[in-house]
């Protein structure tokens, strides 16, 4: 029995990056031998075990064969006869197909170290094209390592195009797709993920609503970059530079979907795109079974982001409606995330990345003024039920008028 570290642990150590997840492969062992040593089985499809003391994962060396459509369409074969090289060849990229023993002796049959040094993301074998999930994975690695200068090899991009055109991407489950998308959006360069998907034709298959934004012009006075797709990439880039959470990054990706529906004869203006885009945002949310907090923020940002930009011009009554829509009294964090998404949208414009965004503090101040309206005096005056709600609304409106007058004086 021989044990090797494989995949990301080897790759990141060679890159000089922190090693977080350690995967191990066991060569020359049977399931019975692993159980006899106290390992606990956890793999449903193939033999994976947890170490009896550390709880770390150990997988038996295995081969795989395509047996159906999609990510799950494989049969696996694990046996003591399967070699380390046979196990490594089924992996996606050469930089993930290296192994090392406890003495750090490297096994690198597919030249992963060479590709690390050349900053190339390259597939290990033609079997790459059997698994559609690998399109998303490669795009995610491109987003992770873009800052180090990594790019996708031309021949790998060709295979990704073949996969995109084959219809296999449609066989991916919503859960698997979202897992890759959400991880990619939290990488250092999430805009690269979207760009790589677009370059290989996968964006058109997975998120046609986002793909449709490329080539759609916007007024140059507000958008020096003009192209709506490029603007979306820039907004995503800003969301990463400003360390925004996943909810904000997802909202940033989807906020302008309505512009993809504007008739060409109306370009570059996009009247009411905030409302026309809501059905598209809802469709993307449902397609990937997106978590509720991400769904809700994306819809709210889509509908109200232009309100955010025009915050200082809004009437007090409109401002109150905006605050009510976000339920700022019970969910203050959601409104804070809305403000963040609006600021990323404002900064995601060519040459305007460092612009100030006074609307952020103005909106925070408005929310504070509305929250500070006390309920107790109204209760003491005898208001209750619907009448209390109306009285509270009147007092909040009065507070917002006073706030607006003072803030814009």
UniProtKB/TrEMBL annotation:
Mg(2+) binds at residues 21, 23. Nickel for phosphatase activity. The keyword Iron does not apply. It catalyses: a tRNA precursor + 2 CTP + ATP = a tRNA with a 3' CCA end + 3 diphosphate; a tRNA with a 3' CCA end + 2 CTP + ATP = a tRNA with a 3' CCACCA end + 3 diphosphate. Keywords: ATP-binding, Hydrolase, Magnesium, Metal-binding, Multifunctional enzyme, Nickel, Nucleotide-binding, Nucleotidyltransferase, RNA repair, RNA-binding, Transferase, tRNA processing. Its cofactor is Ni(2+); Mg(2+). One of its GO terms (biological process) is RNA repair. Its EC number is 2.7.7.72, 3.1.3.-, 3.1.4.-. Residues 228-329 form the HD domain. CTP binds at residues 8, 11, 91, 137, 140. Gene3D superfamilies: Beta Polymerase, domain 2, cca-adding enzyme, domain 2. GO terms for molecular function: ATP binding; CCA tRNA nucleotidyltransferase activity; cyclic-nucleotide phosphodiesterase activity; magnesium ion binding; phosphatase activity; tRNA binding. Pfam families: HD, PolyA_pol, PolyA_pol_RNAbd. Transmembrane segments: none annotated. Catalyzes the addition and repair of the essential 3'-terminal CCA sequence in tRNAs without using a nucleic acid template. Adds these three nucleotides in the order of C, C, and A to the tRNA nucleotide-73, using CTP and ATP as substrates and producing inorganic pyrophosphate. tRNA 3'-terminal CCA addition is required both for tRNA processing and repair. Also involved in tRNA surveillance by mediating tandem CCA addition to generate a CCACCA at the 3' terminus of unstable tRNAs. While stable tRNAs receive only 3'-terminal CCA, unstable tRNAs are marked with CCACCA and rapidly degraded. Monomer. Can also form homodimers and oligomers. A single active site specifically recognizes both ATP and CTP and is responsible for their addition. PANTHER family: MULTIFUNCTIONAL CCA PROTEIN. This is Multifunctional CCA protein. The lineage of its organism: Bacteria, Pseudomonadati, Pseudomonadota, Gammaproteobacteria, Pseudomonadales. The gene is cca.
């Amino acid at each position: 029995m021989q044990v090797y570290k494989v995949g990301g642990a080897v790759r990141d150590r060679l890159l000089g990056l922190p090693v977080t997840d350690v995967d191990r492969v066991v060569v020359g062992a049977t399931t019975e031998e692993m159980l006899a040593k106290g390992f606990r089985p956890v793999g449903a499809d193939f033999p994976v075990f947890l170490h009896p003391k550390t709880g770390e994962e150990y997988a038996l060396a295995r081969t795989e064969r395509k047996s159906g459509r999609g990510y799950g369409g494989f049969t696996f074969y694990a046996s003591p006869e399967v070699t380390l090289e046979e196990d490594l060849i089924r992996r996606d990229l050469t930089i993930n197909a290296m192994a090392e023993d406890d003495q750090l002796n490297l096994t690198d049959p597919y030249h992963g170290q060479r590709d690390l040094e050349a900053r190339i993301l390259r597939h290990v074998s033609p079997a790459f094209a059997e698994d559609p999930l690998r399109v998303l994975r490669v795009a995610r690695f491109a987003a992770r390592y873009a800052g180090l200068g990594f790019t996708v090899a031309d021949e790998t991009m060709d295979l990704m195009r073949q996969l995109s055109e084959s219809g296999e991407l449609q066989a991916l489950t919503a859960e698997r797709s979202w897992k890759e998308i959400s991880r990619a959006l939290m990488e250092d360069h999430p805009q690269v993920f979207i760009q790589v998907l677009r370059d290989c034709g996968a964006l058109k298959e997975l998120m046609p609503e986002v793909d449709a934004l490329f080539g759609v012009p916007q007024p140059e006075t507000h958008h020096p970059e003009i192209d709506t797709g490029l603007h979306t990439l820039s907004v995503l880039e800003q969301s990463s530079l400003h360390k925004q959470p996943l909810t904000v990054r997802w909202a940033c990706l989807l906020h302008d979907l309505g512009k993809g529906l504007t008739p060409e004869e109306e370009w570059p203006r996009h009247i009411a795109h905030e409302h026309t885009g809501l059905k598209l945002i809802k469709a993307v949310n449902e397609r990937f079974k997106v978590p509720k907090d991400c769904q809700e923020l994306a819809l709210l940002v889509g509908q109200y982001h232009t309100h955010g930009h025009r915050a200082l011009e809004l009437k007090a009554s409109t401002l109150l409606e905006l605050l009510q829509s976000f339920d700022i009294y019970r969910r203050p964090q959601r409104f804070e995330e809305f403000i963040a998404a609006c600021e990323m949208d404002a900064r995601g414009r060519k040459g305007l990345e460092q612009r100030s965004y006074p609307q952020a503090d103005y909106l925070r101040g408005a929310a504070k003024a509305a929250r500070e309206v006390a309920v107790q005096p109204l209760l003491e005056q005898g208001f209750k039920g619907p009448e209390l709600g109306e009285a509270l609304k009147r007092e909040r409106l009065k507070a917002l008028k006073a706030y607006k007058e003072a803030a814009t004086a």
